[in-house]
Specification:
272 residues; alpha+beta; Collagenase (Catalytic Domain); 11-stranded mixed sheet; 4 helices; metal-binding
């Protein structure tokens, strides 16, 4: 049985839930202790998504994830990103073969990773809490249902997601800003993230942007859900019923995560 509690206080929404834990996933509760190997600049095009990876000065990676508008392919979006100088020179491009997405036993749900030895995945530090504390600082209007999406993501046991319009908290808690604006006609949603040399997200260097140019009551919930899932460490889900699906579909896009998305968070990325 699922128990769900929502409390609002001073602009802060806190939602908690209990889900049954599914055993059998590879444990990923302790990140590797050795620094990542040197990695090349890389662009990956998968369906309607483009991922741009560059080495981070001082170690780690910078990752930009872009979601294409409807009626636009990932390759078309990549051409526009290149024209605007958003893709570094000399970068290697791969199509439909993503070295940054790891498969799982949970159907078609995947997580962001680096397929090297040792294996690296991307998640938030615990910082002394029983679960990592992620605060999504919402700068968007009601047209973007960020609050509703945060509530859904908080159903995953192992990582706690909070919605706030107030100041970012301190004391080991993490903050992801969620912005909106008219960002032009290149992409619908964008998640920016930096990870350190062993794969932890870096505070203040992970954020989400939602493009008002393509704002619609039909798909805004899906876009918000999708980008927030990336900010927690998820890659795509091959199921057309998940908001983490990797391309636009005819009609309204899926608005919610699937149980398999929760299972990846609970049993892989944030497993105790």
């Amino acid at each position: 049985m699922m128990r769900h509690r929502i409390v609002t206080y001073g602009g802060l929404l806190m939602a908690s839930a209990l889900l049954a834990t599914v055993a059998g996933a590879p444990a990923a509760s302790a990140n590797p202790t050795t620094p990542m190997p040197a990695t090349e600049k890389l662009v990956v095009v998968s369906g309607d998504e483009v991922m741009i990876r560059t080495p981070r000065p001082g170690g780690g990676l910078i990752i930009n994830l872009y979601r294409a508008p409807e009626q636009s392919s990932g390759l078309q979006m990549l051409a526009r990103l290149k024209a605007k100088g958003l893709v570094p020179a000399g970068v290697t491009t791969q199509v439909e073969a993503d070295p940054m997405e790891c498969t799982t036993i949970y159907a078609q749900a995947k997580y962001l990773c680096l397929k090297t030895v040792p294996h690296y995945w991307f998640n938030w530090r615990w910082n002394g809490f029983s679960d990592p504390q992620i605060y999504f600082r919402d700068h968007t209007p009601a047209a973007w249902p960020v609050r509703a999406s945060v509530t859904e993501w908080n159903r995953a046991v192992g990582v706690d997601s909070y919605w706030t319009t107030g100041a970012c908290p301190t004391g080991g808690r993490h903050c992801v800003h969620v912005w909106n604006a008219d960002y032009g006609d290149d992409w619908v949603g964008h998640t920016y993230m930096e990870v350190d040399s062993i794969g932890f997200f870096i505070d203040g260097l992970v954020w989400v942007e939602l493009n008002d140019r393509f704002s619609s009551a039909e798909d805004n919930r899906s876009t918000a859900c999708h980008e927030l899932g990336h900010a927690l460490g998820l890659a795509h889900n091959g199921s057309v019923s998940s908001c983490m699906y990797w391309q636009a579909i005819a009609g309204p896009d899926p608005r919610l995560p699937l149980q398999t998305d929760y299972q990846v968070l609970t049993n892989i990325l944030y497993r105790d």
